Amino acid sequence: MAAAVMLFRTSKTTIVIAIVVGLLLLLGAYWWSGHNTDVEPQYSGARIEGDVVTLDFVKKMMEDFKNQKFLHKRYAFQIVLQTREILQSLPSLVDIHVPNGKRFTVCGDVHGQFYDLLNIFELNGLPSEENPYLFNGDFVDRGSFSLEVILTLFAFKCLSPSGKA
Asked: CA-CA distance, 155 to 125, in Å (whole number)?
């Protein structure tokens, strides 16, 4: 199935994502160059072990966000950098083939509403190769939890870098 967890179709969406990623990269590069990147021992949130984003990490991160806890900046920056590499390697437009008997969830505008995103996942299941999603834009505007939304979507993209989930 040639489906993407996230597919950035419109030029408006691509520009918004490019701006968000660009700002995060600039801030991250500034922070990374002059600050210790070690995770403090007292940090109790989600952790990426090594260089691989795992489903367990994403679930813990979403639970932490749900409880309005923070993700350590080291992991946020790691997710953004990995997503940037993935998106640069993928085409901007892909064909989606949904086999008979399979489903494909298309989501419109999340608008930074993290709890709405959690509700979508509760109703339809988490994104995976067996449960593909297409997020069609307007991820981070208007809502109070835009960073949580985009980091969650980026983390799911890291779980399926080939675009086949």
From this structure: 16
Residues found in the chain: 165
The overall average pLDDT reported for the chain is 82
Neighbours of 85 (CB within 10 A): 11
- For 26-50, b/e burial (b = at least 16 CB within 10 A) is eebeeeeeeeeeeeeeeeebbbbee
What tokens were used for 143?
């809502």
The Cα-based distances of 151 to 22, 82, 85, 94, 125 in angstroms read 14, 11, 15, 23, 18
Q: Measured between alpha carbons, how far is 49 from 24 in angstroms, rounded to an integer?
A: 22
Token couple for 32: 């990374």
**What is the spatial distance between Cα 63 and Cα 43, in angstroms, rounded to a whole number?**
15
pTM of this structure: 0.78
Neighbour-count burial of 150, counting CB atoms closer than 10 A to its CB (0-12 exposed, 13-18 middle, 19+ buried): buried
